[in-house]
Amino acid sequence: MIDQAIMAKAARIKLLVFDVDGVLTNGQITFSEQHEIKSFHVQDGTGIRLVQETGVQIAVITGRYSRIVAKRMDELGVLHVLQAQTDKLKAMQTLQKNKLDAEEIAYVGDDLLDLSLIQYVGLGIAVANASELIKPYADWITTKHGGEGAAREVCELIMRAQDTLTPLCQRYLV
Length: 174
Known about the structure:
The chain is an alpha/beta fold. It contains seven helices and eight strands. The chain has helices at 4-11, 42-53, 67-75, 88-96, 115-120, 150-161, 165-170, and strands spanning 15-18, 30-31, 36-37, 57-61, 80-82, 105-109, 123-126, 140-141. α1 crosses α6 (150-161).
């Protein structure tokens, strides 16, 4: 059962922002001579598409640049993709552009580079396998690991809090 205070925070979210490595992936980066390999969980992608249908905007802010990330976010219709960001808080403030209050933003991270954003937003989230250094600062910690359904879990939390999950599921029933 999710705490009512978390549900109240999730009900206000208009922008959901994810880190990539360790959140949308399991954190492993495999290099070959010519390629970088990352794996994304298909259920996370479905969650991102569903929550976007409800009007919640999605963004990613990541410390690394990867063509694979750009391709995957394009497939998911994610318009705000900020890569190679060494100062994630500054990137968030640029993305925010005074259009949203911090309380209307959720951020999902897994490591120290994410700490400032977890503290800044209205709903700061750490994935289950996040660094123990950031977990005490998160409002909520997922039960699933990064790259293994954690993003879907966050999307469903927000849709439940906003009463949009059940209507979306209805269309899949016979």
